[in-house]
Design goal:
Layout: E1 21-22, E2 32-36, E3 42-45, E4 68-73
Length: about 80
């Protein structure tokens, strides 16, 4: 589970971007921390880069496919 020390550096949001699931190899739509919806493994991924390939992260047989879900959005100042 993602951790933080300084709550003042994080804001809670309820955008629909937190609800989408992504497959290995798909392009990342937002920079941030993503969590596998099945096993809870976490990764950092940058906008426009592909999510790790299938062979980067494996599930035990029968657990279902890898699906990445945005956990913490890394917002950039404009």
């Amino acid at each position: 589970m993602a951790q933080y020390k300084y709550r003042t550096h994080l804001n809670q949001g309820n955008s629909s971007v937190y609800d989408n699931l992504y497959k290995p190899g798909e392009n990342c739509p937002n920079s941030g921390i993503y969590r596998c919806d099945v096993c809870g493994d976490e990764i950092a991924s940058n906008k426009g880069n592909p999510f790790p390939p299938q062979n980067h992260h494996q599930h035990a047989q029968g657990r279902g496919p890898i699906r990445w879900k945005l956990l913490v959005y890394a917002q950039q100042n404009k």
